[in-house]
Amino acid sequence: MQGEGQAIGGRAMESMTGRLLVATPALKDPNFDRTVVLLVAHEASGALGVVLNRATEVPVADVLGDWSDLARDPAVLFEGGPVQPDSAICLARMRHPVKPVKGFHRVSGAVGTIDLSVDPERLREAIGGIRVFAGYAGWGAGQLEREIEEESWFVLDALPGDAFVDRPDDLWPMVLRRQGGMMAAVAHFPPDVALN
Q: How far apart are CA 196 and CA 78, in angstroms?
């Protein structure tokens, strides 16, 4: 899925898999207001990511009982995005990222997706924590690149713990503040001010 050097519209495209999309105040879509999205796949045909900071009140135990012991606090289901909300994507953080683990697909470093059909007991020693997302955010070929050009998203480097923070509501300002400078100032942008 890593598509370095692929062409989009005649120009080379570098894969953004593993990077964060942080919604700018200019983004008008309520599905993504003040969201932080981890891109789990990005190639010429499109992109797929999960919203990291929209926790629900549904416990993981209610949906995937066998996996609940591995879920990080808050151990609830997250709204991963508006596409296929009845499907689940599970992110996992490996304890030993260099050891190959069946059912784990690396996104970046120790973070990747995990196949929920695998027995979680077989993965207990290898996994440091999971997050389960209902639905995902998806973009067709060139769509995400256009949204970035329209200044709807900041594209930023992810830290290994971003997908597993204890206080997901604080992730949007936290990621912006750590950038410093003018980017840090955006973290204090009032939520009810419209940009023209």
A: 31
